[in-house]
């Protein structure tokens, strides 16, 4: 009758709930095991794409082309270029000497001069280097009327609308004529603008003397003019010893204010992927990864079809979709620079993917109480953190704007609004240049710094920590009184492990009576008398019976009315608790009287 009554009231039988819970635990374990296999495969795949020789190849090439000084002028290298004269000194000096290695250190010839140069005797120069220039048109800006008599020409900063495509100079060779881009390739993002492809291009010769003569001709005929806004130097190397390509781009930007700003890119990439046995092992991991990708895509499509709009309410589902989308944005180009560019872009996507793949492990944190507390703390205080973030960034951006407007013209860290934002994050972490701020403004500099440290560091950050600390205390208190997740995967794993040991006869099964007996013996050893032990055993029986009836996770969604016998047991349990509290109160009063009687 009781069973039928529960069915009529819409409840679920215990054995049904137990089966559903076991099935849920089994499914979670299967997902966890499968995901760990996928994660291990992804780690092998990503680390197989990285070679420690990449760093050393980039380092030796950057040292050669960036730090080598011009002959007779130790202060002029690529990093220190500040004028057009310095640029030509670099082209005719360190660049020329760094590109052409045609003999051993004792002047013995190493190979046929018709072949490419071998930089540092190990790196083959692929093809010939290329130099490309972009210019702007005259009258792309306006000169104030009072100064038109002094300056009639005006060249603005580089944009695609201001770009000059007309022929100039000798107007005979390709370096004096504009060449359009031959392939659809990404633009270059420099310090002063985003630069398109194409431009005024010339390629160097395989002969060192011919290349030097070319540089002299271009310099004498003013190939670099006031219209020049950027020059690119591109070339590629291959090192067969480590099977790596090094694609190098040196960039010199000529701002409208005058001077030169230099930047560079060194991409060491592995374009010939399958050479050694280890490479073929990585290929097998790639195939396995593709299989996982198909399986996960099918699983997520099935979940979307099953749960529909409810699927998108879980942050873990969004994370899984994000992981799937990250792995479908790869392209290849025949040009070495653009091939290397997209290869590095692909590596960046893989790096972000492996990061979020590790983050997804938090989905299975229910097997650990501490990690579950951390997850509950972050989820519970999220609303408070969002409210705090609004207040924090209002003050933070106000200080960033103040720093940009007051110090932007004199301090590099505040030269742009974006730099001001990142500089303030660095100040919070203890990395700041107070001397530069003070020198820029002796009054507002110290005021800005002291008030920023006080409000952001001492006030706001401590408020942030207080929010998390209070929420963690609440979560810990809830866990201490039994408000825990529905099940802990760790307990299930431990129970399965004990069952396996018992079946293999490596561990004796322990009954509930044995466990109770152990606790009684431990209480006797600690000095409790028999009356206290019997009272504790009676209370434990009541507590276990009531918890099994009302707090068991196996019948969490099963409504059951309270019977008279159950109410009687609960009443007796409450009476016993009252007696214990009264006994404890008497003991505390005795102790207080003894303490007050002390002289």
Automatic annotation (TrEMBL):
<dbReference type="InterPro" id="IPR046791">
    <property type="entry name" value="Polycystin_dom"/>
</dbReference>
<keyword id="KW-0406">Ion transport</keyword>
<comment type="subunit">
    <text>Interacts with TRPC1 and TRPC5.</text>
</comment>
<dbReference type="GO" id="GO:0050982">
    <property type="term" value="P:detection of mechanical stimulus"/>
</dbReference>
<feature type="domain" description="Polycystin cation channel PKD1/PKD2">
    <location>
        <begin position="328"/>
        <end position="475"/>
    </location>
</feature>
<keyword id="KW-0175">Coiled coil</keyword>
<dbReference type="InterPro" id="IPR051223">
    <property type="entry name" value="Polycystin"/>
</dbReference>
<feature type="transmembrane region" description="Helical">
    <location>
        <begin position="339"/>
        <end position="365"/>
    </location>
</feature>
<feature type="transmembrane region" description="Helical">
    <location>
        <begin position="447"/>
        <end position="468"/>
    </location>
</feature>
<dbReference type="InterPro" id="IPR003915">
    <property type="entry name" value="PKD_2"/>
</dbReference>
<keyword id="KW-0812">Transmembrane</keyword>
<feature type="domain" description="Polycystin cation channel PKD1/PKD2">
    <location>
        <begin position="273"/>
        <end position="326"/>
    </location>
</feature>
<keyword id="KW-0472">Membrane</keyword>
<dbReference type="GO" id="GO:0016020">
    <property type="term" value="C:membrane"/>
</dbReference>
<keyword id="KW-0407">Ion channel</keyword>
<protein>
    <recommendedName>
        <fullName>Polycystin-2-like protein 2</fullName>
    </recommendedName>
</protein>
<dbReference type="InterPro" id="IPR013122">
    <property type="entry name" value="PKD1_2_channel"/>
</dbReference>
<comment type="similarity">
    <text>Belongs to the polycystin family.</text>
</comment>
<feature type="transmembrane region" description="Helical">
    <location>
        <begin position="385"/>
        <end position="407"/>
    </location>
</feature>
<feature type="disulfide bond">
    <location>
        <begin position="141"/>
        <end position="154"/>
    </location>
</feature>
<dbReference type="GO" id="GO:0005509">
    <property type="term" value="F:calcium ion binding"/>
</dbReference>
<keyword id="KW-0325">Glycoprotein</keyword>
<feature type="transmembrane region" description="Helical">
    <location>
        <begin position="32"/>
        <end position="51"/>
    </location>
</feature>
<feature type="domain" description="Polycystin">
    <location>
        <begin position="77"/>
        <end position="272"/>
    </location>
</feature>
<keyword id="KW-0813">Transport</keyword>
<comment type="function">
    <text>Exhibits a lower single conductance but no spontaneous channel activity. May function as a regulator of calcium channels or a channel component involving Ca2(+) homeostasis.</text>
</comment>
<feature type="transmembrane region" description="Helical">
    <location>
        <begin position="277"/>
        <end position="298"/>
    </location>
</feature>
<feature type="transmembrane region" description="Helical">
    <location>
        <begin position="310"/>
        <end position="327"/>
    </location>
</feature>
<keyword id="KW-0675">Receptor</keyword>
<dbReference type="GO" id="GO:0005262">
    <property type="term" value="F:calcium channel activity"/>
</dbReference>
<keyword id="KW-1133">Transmembrane helix</keyword>
<dbReference type="Pfam" id="PF20519">
    <property type="entry name" value="Polycystin_dom"/>
</dbReference>
<dbReference type="Pfam" id="PF08016">
    <property type="entry name" value="PKD_channel"/>
</dbReference>
């Amino acid at each position: 009758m009781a069973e039928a009554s529960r069915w009529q009231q819409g409840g679920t039988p215990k054995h049904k709930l137990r089966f559903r819970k076991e099935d849920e635990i089994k499914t979670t374990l299967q997902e966890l095991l499968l995901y760990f296999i996928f994660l291990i495969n992804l780690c092998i795949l990503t680390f197989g794409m990285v070679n420690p020789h990449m760093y050393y190849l980039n380092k030796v090439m950057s040292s050669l082309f960036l730090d080598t000084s011009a002959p007779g002028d130790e202060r002029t290298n690529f990093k220190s270029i500040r004028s057009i004269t310095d640029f030509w000194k670099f082209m005719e000096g360190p660049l020329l000497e760094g590109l052409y290695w045609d003999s051993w250190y004792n002047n013995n010839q190493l190979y046929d001069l018709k072949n490419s140069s071998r930089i540092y005797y190990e790196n083959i120069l692929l093809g010939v280097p290329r130099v490309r220039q972009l210019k702007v048109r005259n009258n792309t800006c306006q000169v104030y009327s009072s100064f038109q008599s002094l300056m009639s020409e005006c060249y603005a900063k580089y944009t695609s609308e201001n770009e000059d495509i007309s022929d100039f100079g000798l107007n005979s060779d390709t370096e004096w004529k504009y060449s359009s881009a031959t392939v659809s390739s990404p633009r270059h993002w420099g310090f002063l603008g985003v630069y398109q492809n194409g431009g005024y291009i010339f390629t160097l010769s395989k002969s060192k003397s011919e290349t030097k003569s070319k540089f002299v001709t271009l310099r004498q005929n003013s190939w670099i003019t006031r219209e020049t806004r950027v020059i690119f130097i591109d070339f590629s190397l291959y090192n067969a010893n480590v099977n790596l390509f090094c694609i190098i781009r040196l960039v010199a930007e000529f701002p409208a204010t005058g001077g030169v700003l230099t930047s560079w890119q060194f991409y060491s990439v592995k374009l010939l992927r399958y050479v050694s046995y280890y490479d073929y092992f990585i290929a097998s991991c790639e195939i396995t990864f593709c299989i996982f990708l198909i399986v996960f895509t099918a699983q997520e499509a099935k979940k979307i079809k099953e749960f529909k709009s409810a699927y998108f309410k879980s942050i873990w589902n969004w994370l899984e979709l994000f992981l799937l989308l990250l792995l479908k944005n790869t392209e290849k180009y025949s040009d070495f620079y653009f091939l290397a560019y997209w290869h590095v872009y692909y590596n960046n996507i893989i790096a972000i993917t492996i990061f979020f793949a590790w983050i997804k492990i938090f989905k299975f944190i229910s097997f650990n109480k501490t990690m579950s507390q951390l997850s509950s703390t972050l989820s519970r205080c999220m609303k408070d953190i969002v409210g705090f973030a609004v207040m924090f960034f209002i003050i933070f951006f106000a200080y960033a704007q103040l720093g940009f407007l007051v110090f932007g013209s004199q301090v590099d860290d505040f030269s742009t609004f974006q730099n001001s934002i990142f500089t303030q994050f660095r100040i919070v972490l203890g990395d700041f240049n107070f001397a530069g701020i003070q020198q820029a403004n002796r009054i507002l500099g110290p005021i800005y710094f002291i008030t920023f440290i006080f409000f952001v560091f001492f006030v706001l950050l401590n408020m942030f920590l207080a929010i998390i600390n209070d929420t963690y205390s609440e979560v810990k208190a809830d866990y201490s009184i039994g408000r825990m997740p529905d099940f802990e995967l760790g307990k299930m794993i431990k129970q399965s492990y004990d069952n396996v040991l018992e079946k293999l006869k490596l561990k004796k099964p322990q009954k509930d009576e044995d466990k109770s007996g152990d606790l009684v013996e431990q209480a006797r050893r600690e000095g409790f008398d028999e009356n206290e032990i019997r009272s504790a055993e009676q209370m434990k029986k009541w507590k276990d019976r009531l918890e099994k009836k009302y707090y068991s996770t196996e019948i969490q969604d099963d409504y059951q009315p309270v019977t008279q016998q159950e109410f009687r047991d609960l009443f007796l349990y409450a009476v016993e608790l009252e007696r214990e509290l009264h006994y404890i109160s008497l003991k505390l009063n005795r102790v207080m009287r003894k303490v007050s009687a002390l002289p």
